[in-house]
Amino acid sequence: MPTVLRIDGYRFFFFSDEHLPVHIHIEKAESYMRIDLETMRVTDCYQISSKEIKRVLLLTQKHRKELLGAWHEYFGEN
To answer: CB neighbours of 73 closer than 8 A, spacing ≥ 6?
Structure first.
């Protein structure tokens, strides 16, 4: 489970056997989200408030280039 980023207590990661679409998993304590990095759409979440969802989306957008780069580097895609 490569961790790509840790910020504000959130851990941004993907699994070593991921699948398309390009996405990132985010967790903090019991909260969890999955965001499609191409569309910036939340594709899964639980135990997370709407306020936290907005915060995580902002963090993801801010670091999107880094997250996409990590995905493509790890999985050997352009």
So the answer is: none
Residue 69 vs residues 25, 30, 45, 72: alpha-carbon distances, Å: 15, 27, 23, 5
**Number of domains the chain is built from:** 1
- Kindly report, residue by residue over 21-51, the tens digit of the pLDDT: 999 999 999 999 999 999 999 999 999 999 9
Q: Residue 16 pLDDT more than 80? A: yes
Please give the residue range of the domain that contains residue 60: 3-75
Provide the residue type at 69 as one letter: G
